[in-house]
């Protein structure tokens, strides 16, 4: 029964994203984040509410990372995950877009296998609107921090 809810939800996200009037990076980020969040929500909560909450959070995070963060912002975020002091916020303003970010990383921990991961609170001010989300990133085999859905 649960698979009958999750699969249509993910398919709906793809159709909604294709109709949205946002740049492709934002579409892909939101859809990927929503799908990953829905799947994670279902695995953790084992119910429809957890799936929907996971999809919403994943979609927001995916949109922020996929659409609003350009190469400069991703480099800054990677720097915070790599060298940021746990519990201390790091901030920057993108010189091209004017978007503002404030990231507060938490202590690193061991993820799956030998991966090192960190959680962080990300506050973004985009077009005058403040968005706050929590994200987990894990260091890949090349040493680059990848935000997890």
Layout of helices and strands:
Blueprint: H1 2-19, H2 24-45, H3 48-68, H4 71-83, E1 90-93, E2 100-105, E3 109-110, E4 116-126, E5 129-139, E6 145-147
Helix pairs in contact: 1-2, 2-3
Condensed summary:
By secondary structure, the protein is an alpha+beta fold. The protein has 4 helices and 6 strands, in the order ααααββββββ.
Could you please describe the fold and organization of this structure?
The protein is an alpha+beta fold. The chain folds into two domains: 2-68; 71-147, no CATH class. 50% of the residues lie in helices and 25% in strands. It is built from four helices and six strands; from the N terminus they run ααααββββββ. The chain has helices spanning 2-19, 24-45, 48-68, 71-83, and strands at 90-93, 100-105, 109-110, 116-126, 129-139, 145-147. Strands 1, 2, 3, 4, 5 and 6 form a six-stranded antiparallel beta sheet that branches. Helix 1 packs antiparallel against helix 2 and helix 2 (24-45) runs antiparallel to helix 3. The longest helix is centred in the N-terminal third of the chain and has 22 residues, at 24-45. The two termini are 24 Å apart. The relative contact order is 0.13. Residues 1-28 have low confidence and may be disordered.
